[in-house]
Amino acid sequence: IRDGKFLYTNRAAVELLRYESWASLTNKSVASCLPSLQPDGLSSTGKISDTMNRVHRGAVETGEWLFQRADTSELWVEMTLAPIDGGGENEHVLLCALYDITRRKQAEKRQRLAASVFDHVGEAIVITDEHGMVVEVNTAYGAMTGRTRAQTAGRLPPLPLEEGSGVLQATRER
User: What distance in Å separates the CA atoms of residue 166 and residue 171, rounded to the nearest whole number?
Assistant: First the structure.
């Protein structure tokens, strides 16, 4: 990257950003591959400019960025920017490495949704390990039983006597 523009890109970058060719990405500004705002609410243009300025002063910067591909689809990357010797005294060239983390970010989003459902559902939920010991309980469980997670975790769940013996026996047989 020189002057905020891609100076040279490899085939992997062209494919990752879904451009047609190396030439179509060369001399394109990094900011033009970003949405107007990053998920943290900051302006992409200002954020990338600040980051590049720190790198020009010698820092190596790594962070998660939301990019917009040539086909306008979103791409989450871990981007590392590092200063490199451009060959001249005033040559400010940056090495940019992009690692696709889109699947991880999507999985994190699904995990947050599942956690939200677990916490906000009106039914009591108790999660046990393979030995029948309580690993986690939700808020509704605490409201219905009066027991906190700390009082319940690591113990066998309190079950009605007639139901509990069958559950415990089945667990032991595993």
Answer: 9
What are the tens digits of pLDDT across the range 4-46?
999 999 999 999 999 999 999 999 999 999 999 999 999 999 9
Burial 124-147 (b: 16+ CB within 10 A, else e): eeeebeeebebeebbebbeeeeeb
Read off the pLDDT band of 159 (50, 70, 90). low
Of 2, 14, 3, give the one whose Cα is nearest residue 69.
14
Q: What would the DSSP string read from start to end of the chain?
A: -BTTB-S---HHHHHHTT-S-HHHHTT-BSGGGS-SB-TTS-BHHHHHHHHHHHHHTT--EEEEEEEE-TTS-EEEEEEEEEEEE-SSTT-EEEEEEEEE-HHHHHHHHHHHHHHHHHHH-SS--EEE-TTS-EEEE-HHHHHHH---HHHHTTSPPP--HHHHHHHHHHHHH-
